[in-house]
Design goal:
By secondary structure, the protein is mainly alpha-helical. The protein has a domain of about 230 residues. Helices cover about 55% and strands about 5% of the residues. Strands 1-2-3 form a 3-stranded parallel beta sheet, sandwiched between helices. Helix 1 packs parallel to helix 9. The two termini are about 40 Å apart.
């Protein structure tokens, strides 16, 4: 399967938060130890997972601007989103910290491709977050900034927050929401009307409205301005508290902003909302039916996945047949 099977996104330019004044100073000389000696720094994570998520976002923002990462806010956002999709295993943090900048795009492509096999609809929706990693001629300075973002996220305990095998534990906070809002320029957020509901409010709303009498398996939860999906996170956690499985419910979130919809799609995987979750990117107030559009796009994503898998399977079968033929040919010659 070729690396370029995913189409390049044709997304409009997104305004970024201007670099702070301190980021314009020349970066200090590196005092880093040799790569072979790099180990994960111990980080005392806050007891509040939401505060931990904000701390990760703050450190990633600082790393991105100090490394002169540029105005493409999808790059640091997609880097952190990809790392959130990893499951934490012993030694993973140290391994990630030892990667070189030029190795990171391939890592992120493999992460997203691994999840594309299972949920092509959600990974396609997150195209804005990982499209940059497929650039055959990446900017070296940008790669150094991605490297700085990766180190900042890992050293601030990202894997400890999002890398659990238990989906309930990795659903305790939304890492992407504070990062996205931090990267957006204030005027851009105002123009878009983009104001993410704080987790304390969504948790309160979920606890007040969702109980066992209301939450019957099979019902649908819909959010016409889903943002990064924080409301879905709160509802899913409430369902788990009630002994219910989010997989038994239907979820449909829609947002007009492609970056927000991409974050919601990645979060749907992180929080394990299940096979009945759809994330759309359309205007919820438009006369067209965005739900029908999203279902059609999801169906096409799965059909595309099946076509690629079938092609790859055929190629592998042909190669095996040719290899077997090569093994048999000498034996025929010897027999003659």
């Amino acid at each position: 399967m070729s690396d370029d099977f995913l189409p390049r996104a044709a997304a409009p330019a997104t305004a970024a938060r201007p670099a702070p004044s301190w980021a314009k100073k020349p970066p200090p000389k590196s005092k880093a130890r040799p790569t072979s000696e790099i180990t994960a720094r111990r980080y005392a994570a806050p007891r509040d997972p939401h505060e931990h998520a904000r701390k990760i976002a703050d450190n990633v923002l600082g790393a991105w601007y100090q490394a002169f990462g540029g105005s493409s806010i999808d790059v640091p956002l997609g880097t952190v989103a990809g790392l959130c999709l990893l499951r934490n295993v012993p030694g993973l943090a140290d391994w990630l910290l030892n990667l070189q900048p030029e190795q990171l795009p391939q890592l992120l492509k493999e992460i997203y491709l691994g999840h594309w096999i299972k949920r092509p609809d959600l990974i396609n929706r997150a195209m804005r977050l990982h499209d940059w990693a497929w650039n055959p001629d990446p900017d070296k300075q940008q790669l150094r900034a991605v490297h700085a973002v990766t180190r900042a996220a890992i050293n601030t305990g990202l894997l400890e927050l999002t890398g659990h095998d238990d989906p309930g534990q990795r659903s305790e906070a939304d890492v992407l929401s504070p990062l996205l809002t931090g990267l957006r320029h204030k005027s851009d957020k105002k123009w878009r009307g983009e104001y993410h509901t704080p987790a304390c409010i969504t948790d309160l709303m979920a606890n007040m409205t969702v109980d066992k009498d209301f939450a019957q398996p099979g019902i649908s939860f819909r959010e016409p301005a889903v943002g990064s999906g924080t409301m879905f996170r709160s509802v899913a956690q409430r369902l788990r508290d009630l002994g219910l499985n989010p997989h038994d419910f239907h979820w449909y979130g829609n947002d007009i902003d492609s970056l927000s919809a991409g974050c919601a799609a990645v979060n749907a995987i992180i929080w394990d909302l299940g096979p009945h979750c759809l994330i759309g990117c359309a205007d919820s107030l438009a006369p067209d039916d965005d739900y029908v559009q999203t279902r059609a796009e999801a169906k096409e994503a799965f059909e595309q996945r099946d076509r690629y898998v079938e092609t790859a399977t055929t190629i592998v079968a042909h190669r095996r047949a040719l290899a077997l033929l090569d093994q048999l040919m000498p034996s025929k010659e010897n027999a003659a």
